[in-house]
C-alpha cells in the first residue's frame, strides 16, 4: 500500500511502511551525503521534548485529550527503542535542523494515527505541524534537545573518566616504589618514581572530570518556548512555564528556562565551551598514550620500562611483534575530537543574526566526540591501564645511570665542577657515583648517600 502526500512544492508517493512524510522524504533525497542518520540520542531527546510539549499544550487548553494521549503514546513507543529506523535524515544537512524536526514530527504523527486506528498520512486527525509541533519551532526544539542529549552523554563520559582516574591512582600506589630516570625533552633527567608519573596522569584526568561537571550548569539552560526567533510567537506564556517544568520532570535534569530566549536561540557558545573541554580531555589522554608508547617501547631496543597487556599480533611479517594498539587508538580518538572541536568552532561562529543554521553540524560533532571518548576511555582502562606492569630492574638501572643526578653535587662542589663530573660520566659510560669515587671528590659514604636515586624522590622538609 502507498499514499500520496502533498506540500506547497508538489506531491510525493510514500509506502505505508514509511512512517515519515513528505518533508522527510525530500530531506532524505536532498542530504544523502554520508549514509549516517542523525544520532539516536538527539532523536530521543527531541521526542522527549515533543512529549512535554503535547502535555503542556493539553494542560493549557490548546490540545484535546485524544490527540495528546495519542502523541504521548507515540513518543513513548519511540523512547522505548521502537521505530528508530524511521529517522532517516542524514547527519549532514542544511536548514538548522528543520529536516530532523520534521522527521520527528511526521513519525510521531503517523504512529499516533495508527494507534487511533487511522492510516498514515491522515493528517486531518493528527497533523505533524498543527498538533505535534504545536507552540514550537525547530529553532527552540532542536537547541533544547541538543542540550539534553549532550548532558546525557556528558554524564556517561564523566562516569568513565572517574573510573579511569581510579585506575591511574591504583597504578600510582602500585608503582610508588619503582624508581626510574625522569626525562625532560626526552633527555636524561632527575630520578622519579613510576608511581609519581601515574599520579600526575590521575591529576590531569581529575581536572577534566571537574571541568565537565561544571559545564553542565550552562547546558541546562534551554530555550523551549522561544519558537522561531526568540520572542515566543505562537507560544502562550502559561505554556512556556509549563513545558519547562514538564520537561524537567521527564528528563530528571535540572533544566532552567533561559531568561533571555533570543540569546539561547541564536548563540551556540555553550557547545563550543563543552567541546573545548572535550578537546582538553583529548589532549591529556593523548599525552598519556604517548608516554605509555614510549615507556613500553622495545622490548630490546627501546625504553622497556613498562609492559602493556598484549592484545593482538602486531605484524604480518615480523613474528612475535606486539604493538601498543590501545594507546594508538586513544591518540586516534584524540585527533578526531580535536578536529571535531574545530568544526564546532567554525559552525558556531558562522551563525547569522537570530539563528545558527549549522546546529546539525555542531550536533553531529559534539555527540560523536562524547561517544568516542566515552567508549575509548573504557577500552583504555580495561584493556591497557589496568594490566600495565613495571620492569623494576630496568627502571632502577636507568635511575642509576642518569647523569642528571650530578645535580646533587652542586651544593657541595658548585655547578661547574658538577657539570664536569656529569660530562665525564657520559663520555666514559659510567655512573656519576663512579666518577665521584675515582676523583675522590668526597667521602664514599657521603657520595653514596646523596647520589642514591631514592633520595631524589623524597620530599624534603
UniProtKB/TrEMBL annotation:
Query: Under the GO molecular function aspect, what terms does this record hold?
Result: aspartate ammonia-lyase activity
Fumarase C C-terminal domain location, by residue? Answer: 405-456
Which BP terms does GO give this entry?
aspartate metabolic process; tricarboxylic acid cycle
Q: Which GO terms describe its cellular component?
A: cytosol
Q: InterPro entries from the xrefs?
A: Aspartate_Ammonia-Lyase, Fumarase/histidase_N, Fumarase_C_C, Fumarate_lyase_CS, Fumarate_lyase_fam, Fumarate_lyase_N, L-Aspartase-like
Q: Which UniProt keywords apply?
A: Coiled coil, Lyase
Q: Which residues form the Fumarate lyase N-terminal domain?
A: 12-338
In this entry, which stretches build a coiled coil? 154-181
What Gene3D superfamilies does the entry give?
Fumarase/aspartase (C-terminal domain), Fumarase/aspartase (Central domain), Fumarase/aspartase (N-terminal domain)
Pfam families with a match to the protein in the record: FumaraseC_C, Lyase_1
Against PROSITE patterns, the record matches this protein to:
FUMARATE_LYASES
NCBIfam families xref list: PRK12273.1
**What name goes with this protein?**
Fumarate lyase
Q: What is the lineage of its organism?
A: Bacteria, Bacillati, Bacillota, Bacillota incertae sedis, Caldicellulosiruptorales
